[in-house]
Amino acid sequence: MISNPSLSLEHYWQTxxxxxxxxxxxxxxxxTVIVIAFVLLLVMGFIWIERRGMGRMQARLGPNRAxxxxxxxxxxxxxxxxxxxxxxxAKGDKVVHWLAPVVAFAPTLMIFxxxxxxxxxxxxxxxxxxxxxxxISSISTLGVFMAGWASSNKYxxxxxxxxxxxxVSYEIPLIVAIAGVVLIAxxxxxxxxxxxxxIPFILLQPLGFxxxxxxxxxxxxxxxxxxxxxxSEIVAGFHIEYxxxxxxxxxxxxxxxxxxxxxxxxxLFLGGWRGPVLPPWLWFVLKVAxxxxxxxxxxxxxxxxxxxxLMALAWKFLLPLALINLFVTAIQVLAWxxxxxxxxxPVNIAIMVxxxxxxxxxxxxxxxxxxx
Amino acid sequence: xxxxxxGEEVATKLEQQFPGSIIETSKDSLLAKNESLFDxxxxxxxxxxxxxxxLSTITAVDxxxxxxxxxxLVSLEHNHSLVLKTRCYERESPAxxxxxxxxRGADYQEREIYDLMGISFxxxxxxxxxxxxxxxxxxxxxxxxx
Amino acid sequence: xALKTEPFVLNIGPVHPSTHGVFRMRATLDGEVIIDLEPxxxxxxxxxxxxxxERTYTGGIPLTDRLDYLASMSNxxxxxxxxxxxxxxxxxxxxEYLRVIxxxxxxIASHLIAVGAFLNxxxxxxxxxxxxxxxxxxxxxxxxxxxxxxxxxxxxRIGGFTxxxxxxxxxxxxxxxxxxxxxxDEYDRFLMKNEILLARAKGVGILxxxxxxxxxxxxxxxxxxxxxxxxxxxxPYSIYERFEFEIPTGSAGDCYDRYRVRVEEMxxxxxxxxxxxxxxxxxxxxxxxxxLVRPPAGEAYAHIEAPKGELGFYLVSDNSIAPYRCHIxxxxxxxxxxxxxxxxxxxxQDAIIIFGSIDITMGEVDR
Lengths: 372, 146, 367
What we know:
The complex is a heterotrimer of chains A (372), B (146) and C (367).
Chain A: H1 9-14, H2 24-57, H3 73-82, H4 94-111, H5 129-137, H6 139-150, H7 154-185, H8 190-195, H9 201-204, H10 206-219, H11 244-268, H12 280-301, H13 307-335, H14 344-362
Helix pairs in contact in A: 2-11, 2-12, 4-5, 4-6, 4-11, 6-7, 7-10, 7-13, 10-13, 11-12
Chain B: E1 3-4, H1 7-17, E2 22-25, E3 29-32, H2 37-46, E4 54-63, E5 66-75, E6 80-88, E7 95-97, H3 106-117, E8 120-122
Parallel strand pairs in B: 1-6, 3-6, 7-8
Antiparallel strand pairs in B: 2-3, 4-5, 5-6
Chain C: E1 8-12, E2 24-30, E3 33-40, H1 48-52, H2 61-65, H3 72-87, H4 93-122, H5 127-147, H6 169-191, H7 195-201, H8 209-214, H9 220-224, H10 231-234, H11 255-279, E4 298-306, E5 309-317, E6 325-329, H12 331-335, H13 339-343, H14 348-358, H15 362-366
Antiparallel strand pairs in C: 1-2, 2-3, 4-5, 5-6
Helix pairs in contact in C: 3-4, 4-5, 4-11, 4-14, 5-6, 6-11, 11-14
C-alpha cells in the first residue's frame, strides 16, 4: 500500500551484517555489548525519571542528594541492594526461587535483539521481528509465577496468580493492536516498520496506539494496573520474600519491561529512530524517554483498579475495540487511495473518538459483591 | 439540646410494665435490678414515646462493694437520653445479661468490660478477651488489681 | 466435573502498610473473595483508663492526647469538658471561641489524613496523600505557633487555656482560611468524578441505615448511611449553637459516600472558623481554677463530635485530686463492630478500602 523503499534489493543487502573480519560474530559481540549497556543505562535513567518526576508531581522534591539532581540515585540504590543479605525462605523451593529472577529479567534483554537503533543497526534483523517480541515477552510472566510459588507465602501466591491472569488477558488486545500496524506497514520486521513510517503510525492508527499503551501498561504491571505489586495492599506482591541481588533483578526487570514497552511503542508508533537533525539513536532514546514519562504521569495520577475490573476491561472493552480497529484498518489498507494518505489521519482520529465514547457508554465495570 | 430524661419520670412508666424491677431513681439516672435488665431495655427500645434506638456507651465502675454498669441510651427520633444503671454484688464471677441481641454496638464494649473488669455477660455470642491477649490472668481495671 | 477448591486463611496485618496502625484481620478466602473475617486488635493497649486513675485531673490531659493521636485537640476538649461539667467550672468567652476554632481546625486536619489515606489505599500512589499533607502542614504550623508541638498538643486546660494566643496567630489563620477552599476545590476537580475511584468505591462496603444505628456508629460513618445525627447540632456543647453550619449526609452508606461526607465536612468547618474569627471577643483566657482541681463527688458524661465520631468521657469523682474512674467512649472501636458484615463477599482489595473508609486510629480502639 505504501510504496516501500525497504523492499528494494539494494536495501536488502544493506541490512546484512557488515563485512568485517570475523563478520557475523563481531557484529553479534558489538551489538550484545551495545544492547546490554543500553538497557542498563536506560533503566538507570528511567529509575531516575520515575523517582524525580513522580516526586515533582507530588509537590515534593524527589532525590536530590546523590549526585547533581539526584542523577546518581539509581547507582546508590544498586550498590545498597547488592550489599544486602540474601534471604531464602526455608520452606520454599530453592531451585525455583533462585531461577525466578533470571527467568524474569533475561527476556527483556533478549527483546532488544530486534529493535533498530538506526537504519539497519540491529543485532538480528529477523523478518518476524514483532512476532518474536510478543513471544519472548510472555516468558517474563513465567518468572513472576515461579517467584510467587517458590516463596511459600500466601500473599505472593495470590499476587502471582493475579499477575498471570492479568498478563494472559492483556496479551490479546496487545497483539491485535500490533496487527493493525503490521497491516499498514506490510511487514513484521521492526526495521521495515520504522522505514515505512513516513507519517508516524500514531497518527494513522490512534486507536491502535491507545489500545497498545493501555494493554502494555497492564502487561508490565504499572499503575493503574499494578495490582501485582500493590504497595498498599499485598505489600510488594510476588517479590515479598526476595532481598539482595535477586530483588535487584526483579526491580531491574520491572523497569526493563517498561523500557521494552516504551521502545516498542516508539518503534511501532512514533517512528523509531527517524527524525530531522539529531543522530538516529538520540531520537530513539528521546522518544523512549517521552513514552516512559507519560507512563510515569499516569502512575502518579490514577488510582488502581480491582482484579475483576481489570479482566472486564481487557475482555469487554479493549478486545472488541481492537478487533474493530483491525477490521477498519484492513478495509483502509485495501481501499484507500494512496495519494490521500494524510486524510486518513483525521478520519481515524474521528473513528477513535466516536468508538471510545460509544463503547464506554455500554461498558459496565462488572463484578461486585459475591453472595456468601 | 438532647433532653436528659429524669429517672423518676421513666421509672413510673417502667414500674407499670415491670413492677419491682427498679431499685432506685434519681434526677439523672435509674437503677434497675440485674435480672430484669434485658426486659427493661427491650421495652425501652421499642416503646412508643421512648424509642431508645441507640446505645451510646456502656461503662463499668468498680466500687469496692459492688460493680456498677452504666448504660447511656439515646433516642434519635425524639432526641432524648436516659442513663440506666445496674449493680452486681458478686466479686468472684459477676454476671449480667448481655444486650447484644438488642444493640449490636454493645458487642465490643461488653467484651472490653469482661476483659478489663471481669464481669461476664450472659448471652454474649463471643465473650473473649479483646484488648489483652488470651492467656492473660486477672482483670486490670479492678481496684484490687495492683 | 467441579474443580475442588478449599478456602485458606490469610492474615492481613498486624504489620501492614495499609491497616492504619497495628490491626489484624484474619480473613478466610475462597480464591480472592473473602468469606469470613475476624478482626483482632489490642496490640496498642496501654491501659490509659487505669493510668488516668493515678494522675491528677490536669495530669490526665497528656494521656488523652495519645488516644486519637491524629486529632489531639478534640480529645483534650472532650476530657476538659467532662471535668468542667463534673466540677461546675465555667469558661470565659474568649476561651470558648478559641476552643471552637481549634476543634474545627483539628477536624480539617484529621479529615485530610483520612481522605488522603483512603485514596492511598485505593492505589493513587501517594499523590492525593501528599497534596493533603501539604495543607495539613499549614494547620500543624498554626498549632505549633500556639502549643509548640506538632502532633500531641496537650494544649487545652481545665477552665480555658494557660496563656493568650500570640499576635501572629489570627492573621495566619485568616490567610489559611482564605486559601483552603481553593485547595478543597482542587481535590474535588481531580477526584470527585474520577472513573477509577467511582468504580472502586461506589457501592462498595455498604452499611445500611438500620445496621448503622444498631451498632451505635457515629460520626461520618453514621452520617454517610443517611442518619442526620451530629452532636454539634443535636446536643450542642461549648458555644456551637451560635454558629451556622450544615450537616452533610450521604444516602447509600458506601465508601464513596463516606469520602464525600468528609470532604463536605471540611468545607463546613471552614465556615465555622470564619464565623468564630469574626466574633471572637477580647478577655481572659482562663477562669479561676485551683491548681489541683478537686471536684465534688459525683459523675459526669460529656461527649463531643470528634472527627472520628462521638468521643465521650465518663468521669466518676470521689472528691480527691485524681478521678476515681475515667472511661472513654472510643468511636473507632464502636464503628468497627460491623466490619465483618461490610467486608464479606468482597475481595481483598476491597477489604483494605472498606477498612480505610471507616477511618479508625488504633490509639483509640485499644486505648
